[in-house]
Amino acid sequence: MFSELNILLEQLTGLCPDIRSAIEENRLVAMESGSRSPCLDLRRIDAKLANQSQDVDLVVLEGMGRCIHTNYNAQFTCDSLKLAVIKNRWLANRCGGDMYSVVCQYSKGTKTT
Is 6 helix (H, G, I), strand (E, B) or coil? Predict the structure, then answer.
C-alpha cells in the first residue's frame, strides 16, 4: 500500500503545482505506519513515524481497519482525516449504512494556538 501511495503522489506532482511544491519542500510526506496489520494501534507505531509526527498539521488515516475498527474515536492534537469504505455487512448495519458506504471524517485538532 505504501508503494502505491508513493506512485500516486508522484503522479499528482505532475497535475498539481501545490502538491509538487509541498513534496519538494517536505511539507507533504507519506510515511509507513510500521504495522503489517490492517488495524493500527497508535500506541505501537514505528518510532520514526512518531518522531516525525510531532508538529504535523494533518494526519490522514485510510482504510476500514485503521479508521473504523481501531481509531474512529481517536482524537489528535492536529487536524485529522479518516477515509474508509465499509466492506463488512455487520459493520455497515452497526453504522447505519450500506455495504461499500464511504466514511470521510474530518476532525479539527485539539491543539490550541
Answer: helix
| Helix, strand or coil, per DSSP, at residue 103 | strand
Domain ranges for the chain: 55-112
DSSP SS3 for 104: strand
Question: Per-residue confidence of the chain (113 residues) as pLDDT tens digits?
Answer: 568 888 999 999 999 999 999 999 999 988 888 777 888 888 888 888 889 888 899 999 988 888 888 999 999 999 999 999 999 999 899 888 899 999 999 999 998 65
Q: Are 47 and 32 in contact (CB under 8 A)?
A: no
The pTM for the full model equals: 0.79
What is the rounded distance in angstroms from the CA atom of residue 89 to the CA atom of residue 92?
A: 5
3-state secondary structure of 93: helix
SS (H, E, C) 23-87: HHCCCCCCCCCCCCCCCCCHHHCCHHHHHHCCCCCEEEEECHHHHHHCCCCCCCCCEEEEEEECC
